Fold:
Amino acid sequence: MKIVFIKVNMMYSKGKDALKPLIFPIIEKITPSGCTVSFYDERIEALPDEIDADIIAFSVETFAARHAYELSDRYRRRSSEVTAKKEEEGKKIRIVMGGFHACAMPDEVLEHADTVLVGDAEDTWPRYIEDVKSGCEKRRYDSQNKCPVAFVDNNAHCFDGKKYLKLGMIQASRGCKFNCDFCSIKSLYPSGVRQKDIGDVVEEIRNSRWACQISMDIAFNDELLELMYDSGCIMVLIGFESLDERNLRIMHKSANIGIMNKGGEDETGDEDTQHDIRIKRYEEAIANIYRHNIMIYAMFVLGYDHDTAESIKKTYDFAVRNDLAVANFNPLMILPGTELYKRMSSEGLLKYDKWWLDEDYRYGDAMFYPKSMTCDELMEGCRKARYDFNGYRTILKRMFGAKVNHRGIFNSAVFLLVNLISRSEIHRKQGRSLGGGNEL
Structure:
């Protein structure tokens, strides 16, 4: 059985910021014997015009959904002759889709696929393949999300010949103990967190320079930060999300609120003074991570109820002042399957019913009607923050502003590489439509 597995890009143009997708080595390992699997990552390589396979499988994220549907429909059309020949032999080309978007919108996905896989691949993919072999595949396979988190070989054969960033990505667990209303992870893994076997985690990071995402509550865990640095961690991704505690409370961002109120509530001073104290605690968290020689990739979510055009500018100033190695200034993304999406939909605040399919939506646009600014102010504020933060002068200012960003040749090289790629990707994506580009 011939299988082609595709990681779908959100647009037709290739990017420069792709990391190795963890799903590739997982699929390679769990595919039953008797099958050959070819892997394509559209983020870094062109897809063939035609595909002769028994199964074409797509890994789909929400931003890539429209393009995945285009590819599926066009491959069916281009492969009509192959399909007719296979049907004469009692065979047919099957389209199967999985990934976060497939889990959030399975019925929508089934309009463009024969089968949808909902949840972890470890228990859905082998069952699906065996059912295809037996000629009794179902339309939908649901994971119980209870299987062990798989070991990932970063040197697996599926990556041969593919040019990714030279940075390892380690997954130590699935799920999240927090309940942020905008996050799709909780909707996919509602039952909590599953940990990977500690021996597998150690094996994956051995002899590697690596990065990971952490919650804010780790910022003052000196013992853990020291161990991370000693094992090769060079950068952590942190969701700062907002500088306004009122927004954090709407998000249910408890770890961040805890940092802002570290040491107990201070009842003295007016509201502005209290705000400055909380920002200072964010900055103390940053300084403590820097003290352990680890760079910071910060993520901000802009557009919640207490955000204004002015607060976006203050968020940008905060990121530059603290010399963050990388920062994302994202307009609040309303992802299907989240509590935020349900709330925005019920309150009539969505600008698009399904922004990921709407021809008028452009990357970087507001997906909803903000409470304290216009849609254009949100879009333009985030665009300006992104462009200015990744301007050449600001990159150099941040590089030499914090010692950790230029500590040795390796850190300096990583800092410059990541920032130049980030600059390129921001200019490539901003204002572009999702999918809807060149014909196959």
In short: The radius of gyration is 23 Å.
